[in-house]
Amino acid sequence: MPNDKKRRFIVLSNRLPIAVGRGPDGELTASQGAGGLVTALAPVLGNRGGAWIGWPGTSEKGVTALCRNFSRQAGYFLRPVSLTEAEVEGFYRGFSNEILWPLFHEFQMPCNFLPAYWEAYRTANATFAKAAAAAATDDDLVWVHDYHLMLVARLLKAKGRSPRLGFFLHIPFPPADIFLKIPWRRELVDALLDFDLIGFQTLRDRRNFFDVVKRLHPSAMRKGRGEIVTLTLAGETTRLGVFPISIDFAAFADRARDPGVRQTAKDIRQAFDNRFLLFGADRLDYTKGVPQRLDALQTALTSYPELRGKVCLIQVLVPSREEVPQYRAMKEDIERMVGEINGRWSRPGWAPVHFVYRNLPHDELIAYYAASDMALVTPLRDGMNLVAKEYAACNVAETGILCLSEFAGAAMELHRHAVMVNPFDVVGVAEAIRDGAAMAPGQRRRRMRAIRAIIRRHDIFQWVDAFLDAAFSTHLGDFPRQSAGAWADPEADPEAGQGPPWDTPDRVA
Ligand code: GDG
Q1: Where are the residues of the annotated region Disordered (predicted)?
Q2: Does the CB atom of residue 248 touch ligand 1 within 6 A?
Q3: Separation of 250 CA from ligand 1 center, angstroms?
Q4: Which of 28, 162, 151 is CA-nearest to residue 96?
Q5: CATH superfamily name and code, 249-457
Q6: Cβ of 360 less than 6 Å from ligand 1
Q7: Is there a catalytic annotation at residue 382?
Q8: Beta carbons of 170 and 145 less than 8 angstroms apart
């Protein structure tokens, strides 16, 4: 058994962290994905030696060779998993996107519990497990990401393999009454319990998971408090941890200080005549609460005449899953609402909503973050929401206001300093917009400074370290109680039934 510092580690996620495209002569090209996760994991993978296993997003010929070449540049191996079109349909579009995504975000209507989807999910998970078995020895750590791959530990163990196994859930874990509607609930939960460590974004997610385990297995016992607890069932132990994911704070702040980006931010402010700029950036998805946000703006303009001509909402919507009729309809609804608001209130030189339907280049997004007075981060339910953290990191002038949904995972760490709203309460969000526009500069600075200090301290690198420390250790006593720190509230023991304030129906100021 190697020293833990030497263990290699293998990452599994549905998608490989590369964008596959075509060059000028039609040849396949790969570029590194832009997310914080790959930024944080790439150096650790490079140092320890390891591999990233995932679907490249295409089954075109030449992808394997492309990944092999890209591996040399990346410093770790990229191992593409190949899935047939039917597998992608049943496993990804079906089970993952029509069952797990809506249900875990507490949307029950769009769920389509087709047994064929479950079969495809099992088959695809077996394909990933096979790739992991080929890449990992029993001395390695296999770190599996997200809801697409919840069966991998069980399938690896069925092959007689026993590397150290960690899992991180990027999306929320729903309350028991919702989760238990899944026809294959027991198989999913039992498979998850085969991981040595399961990481959640928030205490609430972990509490929900534990409730589900207790409902299915009344004899399950929990031991410990704080970031890591142990769950024992039939003599087997699984550790459950809370690891709120973060961003590369320094990289965002540095880009925001770049002279070119600052100039773009200045140009944006000038183009909007230095009005009070509200900003939203979301993937097109029903969990993000964009229609409710537009309703809130409409309510604010109706109720508070002093805002007319003074505020603008810049709403960026990143195209996503347009081939799905529900998503297309949602986009049309949003466009109709934007048209209605602008049609009703615009006057020469001012339209209340500036709508952008495309993926902005990274630096332009940063310039918008830096230029805006108030970010409206109002998802109806969200695992964490990195836009909230990126907005704060880019606010180097420390004058922006973060308006944050109680139902975003980020609320656990930031609720004391953000302006908290219930996104379903359009009157409450309208009030928050009014109050934000009137907030004194001193208060804006105090709040933003406190938010930035939390994210600076708990950045993506600290997140990776916390998870790996927990995954490599075997004893509860190995963990400093405050390692993930900012969210730990000594006043509350949220797992003793009395939930934290953002779980309650009342708005938190
Ligand atoms: C899942 C969970 C959890 C947005 N607009 C543009 C753009 N973005 C980037 C942001 C941000 C990312 O997209 C969105 O991240 P989120 O965290 O908000 O959401 P999901 O993609 O749903 O991620 C979520 C996350 O996993 C991590 O665990 O926080 O709750 O659902 O990074 O910067 N990027 C560019 N142009 C845009 O217009 N370039």
Answers
A1: 483-509
A2: no
A3: 18
A4: 151
A5: Glycogen Phosphorylase B; (3.40.50.2000)
A6: yes
A7: yes
A8: yes
Single-letter amino acid code for the residue at 148 = H
Amino acid at 458: H
One-letter amino acid of 101: W
Probe residue for ligand 1, chosen from 144, 283, 359, 464 as the CB with the greatest number of ligand atoms within 8 Å: 283
CB atoms within 10 A of CB 4: 14
- E strand or H helix at 141: strand 141-145
How many Cβ atoms sit within 10 Å of the Cβ of residue 250?
A: 13
Alpha-carbon distance of 58 to 20, in angstroms, equals: 8
Q: Residue 285: which region, alpha, beta or left (left: phi > 0; alpha: psi -120 to 50)?
A: beta
pLDDT of residue 226: 82
Query: pLDDT, tens digit, for every residue of 96-118?
Result: 999 999 999 999 877 889 999 99
pLDDT of amino acid 508: 32
DSSP result, 311-336: EEEEEEEE---TTSHHHHHHHHHHHH
Radius of gyration of the chain (CA): 23
Burial pattern 383-401, b for ≥16 Cβ within 10 A else e, equals bbbbbbbbbbbbbbeeebb
Q: What is the pTM of this model?
A: 0.93
pLDDT digits (tens, 9 = 90+) for 454-478: 999 999 999 999 999 999 876 544 4
The residue annotated as part of the active site, out of 148, 382, 417, 458, is 382
Ligand 1 atom closest to residue 410's alpha carbon, by position in its atom list: 29
Residue 178: phi, psi to the nearest 5? -85, -50
Please state, in angstroms and rounded to a whole number, the distance separating the CA atoms of residues 86 and 94: 10
Q: Any catalytic annotation for residue 170?
A: yes
Are the C-beta atoms of residues 83 and 53 closer than 8 Å to each other?
A: no
Atom of ligand 1 nearest to the CA of 245: 28
Whether the CB of 385 sits within 6 Å of ligand 1: yes
Q: SS3 for 214-282, per residue? A: HHHCCCCEEECCCCEEEEEECCEEEEEEECCCCCCHHHHHHHHHCHHHHHHHHHHHHHCCCCEEEEEEE
Low-confidence ranges of the chain (pLDDT < 70): 1-6, 34, 36, 474-509
The owner of tokens 């993506």 is: 460
Q: Of 386, 387, 460, which is best to mutate to test ligand 1, by the most ligand atoms within 8 angstroms of its C-beta?
A: 386
